[in-house]
Design a protein that fits this description.
Layout (H helix, E strand, L loop, with lengths): L2 H4 L2 H10 L7 H4 L1 E4 L5 E4 L6 E3 L2 H9 L6 E3 L17 E2 L2 E2 L1 H6 L4 E5 L5 H9 L4 E4 L4 H15 L2 H22 L5 E6 L13 H8 L2 E3 L13 H7 L3 E4 L8 H4 L8 H4 L3 E3 L12 H17 L6
Parallel strand pairs: 3-4, 3-7, 7-8, 9-10, 9-11, 11-12
Antiparallel strand pairs: 1-2, 5-6
Helix pairs in contact: 7-8, 8-13
Amino acid sequence: MSYRSNLLPALLAASALLLSPAGHAADNDSISVIDDTDREVRLDAPAERIVSLAPHITEVLFAIGAGDRVIGATDHSDYPEPAADIPRVGGYTSLDLERILAKEPDLVVAWDSGNSRSHIERLRELGLTVYVSEPRGFDGVASSMERMAELAGTAEQGRAEAERFLDEIEALRQKYADRDPVPLFYQVWDQPLMTVNNEHLIAEAIEVCGGENVFGHLDRLVPRMDREAVIHADPEVIIGGGMGEDNPAWVEAWREWDNMLAVRRDNLFFLPPSLLQRHTPRIAEGTAMMCEELQTARDRRPDSP
């Protein structure tokens, strides 16, 4: 993977159109980027009052050096620690539009698959500038960091953090490139039971570690299923998050099915959900933990040296 060749060409194209030969943006130094829904987002100057509409967006804004510009965030925006002090504007599925408007933001950063589409459109109708985020892969996470940093006026830090993130992922990819594949089931939620297909960001973490997603072929990004389907698939490993950063109850519940390969070999692994289920640079840390667990499963094979 090459960092410079994989970032979204749309961002580069937009920047090329806006920059003059002297290196300054046209139209009175306005800033323009393309968001993850292919819409142009333009600001006359770097955003100074930002509202974040999802916990992972809040985290990314801090990572790119724009945390002090976030004046509103949704519930559960808990990382890094200063994020807990940001005034709330509702939950990501239950936004308080009046509260958002009262903040008078010059930029709202929304989550395409998490926020209500009608809420996003209503914010635009009310005259707010909205950037919509929906990264599907590691390159997308890095590119989104860069584009948000452009809008916030922290482009240099955004580029540095994006490159550091991709370097970490590439190191893991190289380390585990030749390891034997490990069939696994990744549990996103318990009731209803949910997993991810191969288009999801978590699936790229699985691939980097040499895992094989047993439900990767399904059409839906986050498929729902019954336990019988998982039992029939009989994965070698079950990995999941839970209702908190240190609550492995969902994964431990699989021990009831002691005929499953993952249970017989004690390959039931809990990973803190914020490290894999949020689209942030910390997914590199979660991926490293997943890779270590899959290697543990390889070492537990009867024919392992």
